[in-house]
TrEMBL record:
<protein>
    <submittedName>
        <fullName>Uncharacterized protein</fullName>
    </submittedName>
</protein>
<keyword id="KW-1133">Transmembrane helix</keyword>
<dbReference type="InterPro" id="IPR035914">
    <property type="entry name" value="Sperma_CUB_dom_sf"/>
</dbReference>
<feature type="domain" description="Ig-like">
    <location>
        <begin position="104"/>
        <end position="182"/>
    </location>
</feature>
<dbReference type="InterPro" id="IPR013783">
    <property type="entry name" value="Ig-like_fold"/>
</dbReference>
<keyword id="KW-0812">Transmembrane</keyword>
<feature type="transmembrane region" description="Helical">
    <location>
        <begin position="6"/>
        <end position="29"/>
    </location>
</feature>
<dbReference type="InterPro" id="IPR000859">
    <property type="entry name" value="CUB_dom"/>
</dbReference>
<keyword id="KW-0472">Membrane</keyword>
<dbReference type="InterPro" id="IPR036179">
    <property type="entry name" value="Ig-like_dom_sf"/>
</dbReference>
<dbReference type="Pfam" id="PF00431">
    <property type="entry name" value="CUB"/>
</dbReference>
<dbReference type="InterPro" id="IPR007110">
    <property type="entry name" value="Ig-like_dom"/>
</dbReference>
<keyword id="KW-0677">Repeat</keyword>
<feature type="domain" description="CUB">
    <location>
        <begin position="319"/>
        <end position="438"/>
    </location>
</feature>
<keyword id="KW-1015">Disulfide bond</keyword>
<feature type="domain" description="CUB">
    <location>
        <begin position="208"/>
        <end position="316"/>
    </location>
</feature>
Amino acid sequence: MSSPVFYSLCIITVIASTFLVQAVGALRLKKCPSYVMEKSNVSCTCLTKMKKPHNVTWPGHSQSGSLFLTNVQRSDNGTQYTCLLTADGSKEEVVYTLRVAYGPYDGQVSISPSHLVRNGTQPVTLTCTAEDTYPTPSYEWSGVSCENQVSDDACTFSLYPKDNGREVTCTAESVTLSRKPSYTFHNSVRGTASGTINLNVTLLRPDCGEDLVANSSEQFITSPGHSNQYCVWHITASPGQQIWVDSLEMELETRDPCNRASVSFYDGDEKNGKLLGKFCKRLGNYVPIMPASGMATIVFVSTWGGSGFRLIYKTLPGCVESLTADSSIQTIEPPGYPEKYLTNMVCVWQITAPAGKSIRLNFTDFQIEKSRSCKWDYVHIYDGERGGQLLGEYCGNKDHQSKAKFKPVTSFMNKTTVVFKSDVLYPARGFSLQYTATDTV
Ligand SMILES: *[C@@H]1O[C@H](CO)[C@@H](O)[C@H](O)[C@H]1NC(C)=O
Ligand SMILES: *[C@@H]1O[C@H](CO)[C@@H](O)[C@H](O)[C@H]1NC(C)=O
Ligand SMILES: *[C@@H]1O[C@H](CO)[C@@H](O)[C@H](O)[C@H]1NC(C)=O
Ligand SMILES: *[C@@H]1O[C@H](CO)[C@@H](O)[C@H](O)[C@H]1NC(C)=O
Ligand SMILES: *[C@@H]1O[C@H](CO)[C@@H](O)[C@H](O)[C@H]1NC(C)=O
Ligand SMILES: *[C@@H]1O[C@H](CO)[C@@H](O)[C@H](O)[C@H]1NC(C)=O
Ligand SMILES: *[C@@H]1O[C@H](CO)[C@@H](O)[C@H](O)[C@H]1NC(C)=O
Ligand SMILES: *[C@@H]1O[C@H](CO)[C@@H](O)[C@H](O)[C@H]1NC(C)=O
């Protein structure tokens, strides 16, 4: 008798060991799933190309080459079924090992560290736990960009204050496939479960930034040179001073919507203030800002090192003022006049005359961007407070328009408010507006 030789056949994950006497490799398993979901049925076929006469059976289970198992249970996992080939003078066996898959039936997300009170950037790790599952599922995260993913079930990322309240979901999915050589999938088992967590962040101190005071000198803010940062600058000015912030350079990320690095501008502070804009590149963006609240806040968030930004800030003297009219002729001119005025500017002048008097206003020069209905750049003159009765709305060029349009106006009350707004494009010379107190008509 020749000594038995041991072979092992590997059909993807189905391990079949073959003992043979003569019929080398004559037996194979076909459509036998590598994993079977619990409570389902299994159909597995054992085949040979050997010429008859021969018998192929699953001793104790089937008199033919077809094995059929119903309602498999977890306890059946690991059970081995032997297929036997008998032919004249030879014998061969192949073993099918049943693997029973189940779940996942529940999922949970946990976070470490759990206490998210932070100074600056803090890396945190989320862990996804899929309950009651076999084999190991795959995990997918949504609501978060995982950075250094050590393993599928763990997600590490840097937490920013803006993440407060954000919902992060992990979905665990068990999909087990066996693949035929033709690369078509057959027989998959599938189970999914997901878990969700709400991030809870309290910022104690940002990574960088400063509390700054704007004055009439030009001052600058330059981006810090690292990625993974959260920086906050607050710029204030003395009461009645208009703050003006513009970007000189900004190239952080070329893809919208500025997910990996951005600079946000707020009118007021970053918690309660109004978001004026979020930018990651300068071109085409409306970067110059003038907050109405007396405080500008700049928040820089970065998970990626772009080439950075440089901002300029200063106050605009003569842009927000309370003036008094008397019998003399005084003049209002926007900052920059008679050179180009600044873009994205809002100036507000309040003029008060003695009780019983009116105010007469007369443009001696006027050249600002012209638009239909003066919707881009304009001067509004109100009787009384801003938002009161509109005495005049102006844009364009005084020399090119009918004289009537620019004839002097006189207020009814002893107060008038002049508002000048410019947009981001086509700044021009500006205007010169004379005002004087007159007897009420
Ligand atoms: C499994 O087979 C049994 C008997 O043939 C049948 O009644 C049952 O519906 C099958 N179950 C599934 C999940 O296919
Ligand atoms: C096949 O099985 C039948 C019945 O069990 C038996 O009579 C026959 O001899 C077997 N044939 C071979 C080739 O083993
Ligand atoms: C199922 O059986 C396989 C093969 O015997 C074994 O490796 C695995 O650990 C078993 N799984 C469970 C959950 O018992
Ligand atoms: C935050 O920074 C302050 C001052 O540097 C320090 O005393 C405090 O322990 C830090 N807190 C945390 C949570 O890191
Ligand atoms: C966030 O965490 C703080 C401190 O651990 C806790 O007091 C607060 O209730 C938490 N908020 C939410 C919405 O979970
Ligand atoms: C504005 O403030 C800066 C920084 O404090 C200072 O160096 C500069 O002299 C100030 N300029 C004026 C005009 O006050
Ligand atoms: C004129 O101005 C004074 C304050 O300067 C105010 O008290 C008064 O009501 C005003 N009178 C009119 C007629 O608007
Ligand atoms: C208004 O200004 C123009 C110059 O642009 C001047 O000719 C005119 O006399 C002024 N009108 C009044 C009422 O001051």
